[in-house]
Design goal:
Elements lengths: L68 E8 L2 E7 L3 E2 L3 E3 L5 E6 L1 E4 L20 E2 L2 E2 L7 E4 L4 E5 L6 E4 L4 E5 L6 E5 H5 L13 E4 L19 E2 L8 E2 L9 E9 L4 E3 L2 E2 L3 E4 L6 E8 L6 E4 L4 E8 L6 E4 L5 E8 L9 E3 L11 E11 L10 E5 L3 E11 L4 E7 L6 E10 L5 E5 L3 H9 L20 H4 L55
Parallel strand pairs: 2-5, 3-6, 4-9, 5-10, 6-11, 9-12, 10-13, 11-14, 12-17, 13-17, 14-20, 17-21, 20-22, 21-23, 22-24, 23-25, 24-26, 25-27, 26-28, 27-29, 28-30, 29-31, 30-32
Antiparallel strand pairs: 1-2, 7-8, 15-16, 18-19
Keywords: Signal
Protein name: Serine/threonine protein kinase
Length: about 525
């Protein structure tokens, strides 16, 4: 994530997202707000008078206090929609059903429940509803709140006095399960009215999941005492994540898109697409597409995320960012950056105190990262690994012909490490960078120590990310030997060949990546 320093307290209703390193936190807090919403080129298509969508007669019922507010209609290229605005706090389990002609609106931040604390309440110590509050609102129910979103639902954020984003607080869950033919879409108002183009970004906040997983770089407590928690920077009230439960379940998100997020709050201070803070292995994340985030495709802070089928297209900062003691497991990743924009394909940090435990331990398998040109990024290479991070790669493809591929930063008694097997890289002539105690030769030695690696590979990728002849000829590594979470594959990269179309149907297309889904990211589905 882009650089900003400092920590401020934030409320469960005022969530924000952490940044590039553990000490660099992005925030939706107070400060001058700048919206990065460039004038579309060419001029957007005028709103038609005979769109295929007609507005529903009314909003559906919604269990949370206040229900859904009927905010009238909104017109875009697809027709006219009924706008149903969520309350600022979803205080009891509630559902957003798929209704023809309905869009759901986040008018500023929306909280799913309130913070349930470091540990789950027990029968001996139940949640105290008489004294708890969330953003100044007194609770009338437990924190065990689930927001369910049906397949095909579209939720859009509209910024008011504060940017719009969805915050799922500790002790609460989201159940957003789309399908291949009916993905769930989180997007911006500009996308709805049809003024976006392939360069649009930074128009609303995003989705934030907070959990009780183990974190480092504490705002509260210490790692030594196993009481570490972190504040998310921003506005008045605390929004805390972390605990001791790396099996924490924040819910399920599957077959979903997050478009045009990463709201710009000020210099180097932004929200991003998906942020997972202290979530655990009980959380299910699969089939996700981030589109045109003005910050990271997503960022993971601590905990134990386990994620398959991850796509980040046109992230203006890092395609994936990993921080603060995360124990992550990721398989099938497409990291696709716009020509001339973006920072690193992967930025892998942990905090500056390398003696903190746990060290970050993340495995990424079957990934394909494409960066067409040297984007003059601040990380200097397509992949940056630093802090107390121990990273394992298996079956990877890095195609960045105009940039260095890999930078390791050596700091602390035990600096960051990389272990790679069956990974190929197409880079500029320098290939490696080393900083701190590491030289470029040290970085090279770590990468080449594995099996079937090639740092002077000639890429034959087709259609941007599909394996070609040269990729097919590289022997695969059995990632299942690293952890049972992984599938055994007989190929490197995220996409084996033209017949492998796991990315098709639930995604949207733009000029950087045509997934063959037949649905432009600048448009909305009408069924």
């Amino acid at each position: 994530m882009k650089k900003i320093s400092g920590l401020l307290l934030v409320g469960c209703s005022a969530l924000a997202l952490a940044g590039c390193g553990a000490d660099d936190i992005s925030s939706p807090g107070a400060g001058s707000i700048t919206i990065n919403n460039p004038t579309p080129t060419p001029t957007p298509t005028p709103t038609p008078t005979s769109g295929v969508v007609t507005p529903a007669a009314s909003c559906p019922s919604f269990n949370a206090t206040g229900g859904l507010t009927d905010s009238g209609t909104i017109t875009g290229p697809e027709g006219e929609w009924r706008v149903c605005t969520l309350p600022a706090l979803v205080d009891v389990s509630s559902s957003l059903p798929k209704v023809s002609g309905v869009l759901y609106r986040l008018n500023g931040r929306v909280d799913v429940g309130c913070d349930g604390g470091f540990s789950a309440p027990t029968s001996a110590a139940p949640f105290d509803t008489t004294t708890a509050s969330c953003g100044g609102r007194t609770l009338t129910s437990d924190t065990d709140v689930t927001l369910t979103i049906d397949p095909g639902v579209i939720v859009y954020g509209e910024n008011g006095a504060e940017p719009a984003w969805l915050a799922v607080n500790r002790g609460n869950k989201i159940n957003a399960v789309g399908t291949v033919s009916a993905p769930i879409i989180f997007t911006s108002r500009q996308n709805v009215v049809g003024t976006n183009d392939d360069a649009s970004q930074g128009q609303w906040g995003g989705v934030v999941l907070m959990g009780r997983g183990i974190v480092t770089d504490c705002s509260l407590g210490t790692t030594a005492a196993k009481t570490c928690e972190r504040d998310t920077e921003g506005s008045v009230n605390p929004a805390v994540f972390g605990g001791r439960d790396n099996t924490y379940n924040a819910g399920t998100m599957k077959y979903f898109q997050i478009r045009y997020s990463g709201y710009v709050l000020g210099a180097n201070s932004e929200l991003q697409s998906l942020t997972a803070e202290g979530i655990g292995s009980g959380t299910t994340l699969e089939y996700f597409q981030s589109v045109n985030s003005s910050d990271d495709g997503s960022e993971f802070f601590g905990g134990k995320p386990m994620f398959k089928h991850y796509i980040a297209v046109n992230a203006d900062d890092d395609s994936i960012d990993l921080d603060t003691g995360v124990e992550g497991y990721f398989q099938y990743l497409l990291l696709l950056q716009r020509d001339g924009d973006g920072d690193a394909l992967m930025e892998i940090d942990s905090n500056g105190a390398e003696s903190d435990t746990p060290r970050q331990k993340t495995i990424l398998a079957n990934f394909t990262g494409v960066q067409p040109s040297d984007n003059s990024n601040s990380d200097d290479a397509a992949v940056l690994i630093r802090g107390n991070s121990d990273i394992t790669w298996a079956n990877g493809i890095i195609n960045v012909p105009n940039n260095e591929c890999l930078r390791l930063n050596g700091s602390g008694t035990v600096p960051a490490t990389i272990t790679a097997n069956s990974v190929v890289m197409t880079c500029n002539s320098a290939i490696y960078l080393g900083t701190g105690s590491y030289t470029a030769a040290d970085t090279k030695a770590q990468f080449t120590a594995g099996t079937n690696n090639n740092d002077t590979f000639t890429s034959t990728l087709a259609s941007t990310f599909v394996n070609g002849t040269n990729e097919t000829g590289v022997p695969a590594f059995d990632a299942k030997t690293l952890n049972s979470f992984f599938d055994t594959t007989d190929y490197i990269g995220a996409v084996k060949n033209a017949a492998d179309t796991w990315y098709r149907g639930w995604t949207c297309d733009n000029s950087t990546a045509d997934f063959g889904s037949g649905s432009a990211c600048t448009a909305l589905p009408t069924t």
